[in-house]
Structures are given as structure tokens and as C-alpha cells.
Amino acid sequence: EVGFIGTELLSFDIDDIIYYYRINELVITREEALSIYNKTYGWPYAVEIYMKNHNMSDNHIMNILDSFIYTNIWLDNTDSINEFILKMSVFNNFTLTQCSRQTMLSEKDCYNILMGTSLIMYDKDSQSYMFNPVFRHFVTDILNNKTTDVIYNITLDAANTYKASHNYYEAIALYSRIGHYQEIYDSDVSVEELYEYVIKSNKDIFLDIANHYWSVEKKGHYDMAVNISFIMFLYNEKLTAAKLISNISDDIKKDCHLSKEQVMDYNAALTYINAFLDYNDFTKMNAQFIKVADITNKPLKHIAGHFPFSFECPSVMSIYHSSPGALDYETYALEECASNYYRIT
Question: In this predicted model, what pLDDT tens digit does every residue of 207-234 receive, in sequence order?
Fold first, then answer.
């Protein structure tokens, strides 16, 4: 766009930060410059504050930046603009459609407000908006000082907005934050849609959800519970996974909302997951796969099929071999186990 200067052109990149420190007679490594960039997105004023206070703690620096934002941005905004910012602050990033749903404004009005807010940026690659980390820190503190009802309602609205736009992990993370576990366990999100989020930094959220299975009404809804038990296996939380599988199995038997076929399908899926809890013993794993075949003659569709037996590892034995000197036996057991695995999937 001719004549348009975006915020990215007025921001420092990593090389700029290194150079800026150097002309101020300070030497930093590229890793240190990257850390500063990730905290500021290259906002020149914030980089300057980091440079001038290079011997001070991050908390000290953030207090300076918070004070600047409050005096020079927050107080200059109208109440309606600040309310808009608070409503959007719980999103990691967001589209105009999500912004419109969350704020009940038109996309055009959302666009105009976002374009007038210098510390909210547009990412062309994801076609979404995001807060500068410094601004997010400030706004999060403001939101946390609001009443419990205000925080709850903003977060719940954001979770519903995420869910409506099929951002399922982001939705359940926010539902978890406000204790809205019923909404999580009533959902029909597949484990495949959550798999990419099963990473170390998200473990506490999934564990929190797993530990609240017992606090919700089931009434025939067990898809998410089955998913969570499998995710607990992926996190190597075998005790939690085993407890969930046992309790879900008991609840299914007593649930009058389920048909016989649904009970059969759920039991087959749970038995399949239970097999992987014995991943260090092919004989025990194989016994569980045989049980699955006894429960149903249909291929498993709930979890199996989305995740290969080797979990994308190039060597099956590298993840299952566990007994020194027993490789020949394990190879034989694997052949039988694998044949039953492919029979049920």
C-alpha cells in the first residue's frame, strides 16, 4: 500500500537491538537480543528502557513500562476503547470475526479501533491480531483487578468465541481457567484436533481437566473423557490414565443415556487405550488388543487410525524394547501384537 507505514517498519528487529546496544556502549549476545525482542516485539521505547536498565530485574523494567502505558495510552483512551481492549486481552491472537463476536461490534468498527491502537499488531501470515507482550502484561494486570464476575464473563465469552471458530484447544483452556468443566466434557472435539497441543507447556491444563472428570454430569457424553484418558497416556501420566479408564468404564455401565452399541464402542476405545499402558510388555498389550477384538468386530474409529502404532517413531523397538537380552522374544511378541493391532484398527 503506497504511503502506508506499518508498525513493523518502526520496530527494531534483532540486529537493530544488537546495534542499538552497541552504540550505547553495551554488548549483548544474539540470544539476549532475541529475548528482548520476544518481550517487546521491537517496540523502540521498550527496547530503550531495557537498555537503560540492563542491570535491573524484569519486574523493575515492567513497572516502568506499565507506568508509561497507563499515563500515555490508557488514560488517553475513552472508557469504551479500554473496555474493548480488556475484552480482547484474553485471546492469544484473534481475527476480525472473533473480535466482532467478542465485542458485539461490527468488523468495520473493530478494524478502526485496532488500527488506532498502536500496541495491537496485525500478523499477515496468520491474518490475525495480537497484543504487544508489554501491552498484554499491562492489560492483564488491569483485568486481574476487576471483579470476579467481570473476569468470568469476559473469559467465558472468549471461550465461546474460540469454540465457535473451531479453536478447540484455546476454548477448553479458557473454560478450564474459569472452572467451566461441564462445557469441556460435553464437547465432541476429537483427540486429533487436540493432538498438536499436547506439549509440555500445556500439561497442567490437560491435567486440570482430567482431575475434574468426577465433578461433571455425563449423561451419555464420554468422548472428551476418553480423549483425556489417552492424552494422559501421551503425557506418561499412567496412574491418572488408569484411574480415568476405570471410572469411565464404571460410569458407562450405569449410564441409561447410552445405547448398547455406544457402550460397546466406548469400552473398545478404553480397552485400546489401556493396552498402551502396558507398552513395556508386548504380551500384556496383545492381550488387551485381543479383548478389543472380542468386544467389537468393527474397526476402532475413536482414537485408533489417527495415531500409528509407532507414534511416528522410525523404530518400533526403540520405544517398546525394555528387557536386556529379550530382543528375540520381544520381536516374536511384537509380530503377534502388531497383527492384532492392525486387525482392530
Answer: 999 999 999 999 999 999 999 999 999 9
What cell numbers appear for 142 in the block?
488491569
Lookup: cell for 36 = 528482548
Residue identified by cell 509380530 is 335
Q: What residues form DSSP beta bridges with 307?
A: 304
Instruction: Determine contact, residues 300/266, Cβ cutoff 8 Å.
Output: no
Ranges under pLDDT 50 in the chain = 1-5, 314-315, 317-318
Q: Hey, what's the cell of 308? A: 500409528
Interatomic CA distance for residues 226 and 247, integer angstroms:
11
**Cell output for 261:** 452399541
Q: Measuring CA to CA, which residue among 199, 59, 83, 65 is closest to residue 132?
A: 65
* pLDDT attached to residue 322: 57
| Spatial separation of the C-alpha atoms in residues 134 and 180, rounded to whole Å | 29
Res 4: pLDDT: 43
* Three-class SS of 47-83: HHHHHHCCCCCHHHHHHHHHHHHHHHHHCCCCHHHHH
For the domain spanning 56-147, the CATH number is 1.10.10.10
pLDDT at 30: 97
Return d(Cα 70, Cα 77) in angstroms, integer: 10
Q: Taking the domains of the chain in order of start, what are their residue ranges?
A: 1-53, 56-147, 280-345
